[in-house]
Every structure is written in C-alpha cells, then in structure tokens.
Amino acid sequence: MAVEPLSHKEIEDRLAELPGWSLEGDRLTRSYRLRSHVAATALVVHIAAIQDELDHHSDLTLGYNTVHLSVNTHSAGGVVTEKDFGLARRVEDIAPGHGTH
Fold first, then answer.
1. N or C: the chain end with fewer CB closer than 10 Å?
2. For 40, phi and psi rounded to 5 degrees?
3. Is the pTM value of this prediction over 0.90?
4. 44-63 average pLDDT score
C-alpha cells in the first residue's frame, strides 16, 4: 500500500495538535531539552524502540542534554506523510512535558 504525501494544509492542521513540532523544509522536526545527558540518552533509547516497532525511523541527534528529531517518509519520495505524524504522536506520548522547540 502506497503512502501518500500530505498537503500543506493537512500538515498545518496536524501540527496544530502537536505543539513544539514544526515543518522545516520537507521534514517534521522537534527538539527536547532534558535535565541531564543520561535523561536525553534514555529518551533516545525509548524513541529508537518506538521507531523499530513502527518500522519508521527519524534522524536522531543526541546532544549533552538535548534530543533532536527530523523525519519524513523516504518511501514516499522524502515528503511528510501520516506515518511521520504517527511517529511524532508516539514520541510525544513518552517525552517529558518540558521540551523546547
């Protein structure tokens, strides 16, 4: 089953439901600032497990106390699809509530 790209309006509507997430070029992005490097590393491990479960992977960058995600759907030509928003919602479910954009 092919994954269809979302329109700009569809992306805007879905972003309104995910504070802190934004569209940068052709990718959904979000950064989180955590209390420590260990906490940031733990978040990366949790995100990696979700990505494997969904079989949909973002680019993850781990800083001292930050985690940055950037995702689009490669199989749809590198555009934003519902798969990306599904991943974003799952990450929001497990991420600390004090992330920064």
1. N
2. -65, -40
3. yes
4. 98
